[in-house]
Amino acid sequence: MQFTDEDIEIIKEVFSDWGSDMPYADYNKVRVIDVKFGVREEEKSPTEEELKRREEFAKSPYGLEMTKLFSQTNDYFNKLAEELVDQKEFFESPQWGDNAKIGTQLRIRLPKDFKG
Known about the structure:
single chain
C-alpha cells in the first residue's frame, strides 16, 4: 500500500485529533502508530538525573505545598460529588416524577398521501 503526501497529512490529522471519542481503540497501539506517522515523538524513559530532579522538587517546600493543595482540591471535589449525588435534585424534578408529561401532547401532521 502506498500513500501520497496528502494521504499522510490526512492520517496525521486523524491521529492528532484522536481522543476520548474513540473509547474502544487501544491507547498504546494508537501511540505506536502516532510515532510511525510522525504525529508525535517516541516517549523516552526519564533519565536518572531527571528522576533525581523530580524527587528533589517533590521534597522541596513548594513541592510539598503543591502536594497538599492537590490533596485538598481532590478531597473537596470528592465531597462535592458525594453531596450532589445525595441531593438528587435533578432526578427528583417534576420532569422525572410520576406525573411527567413528556410526549403526551405530541401530535404529528402527516401529508394526506402518506403511506405508512
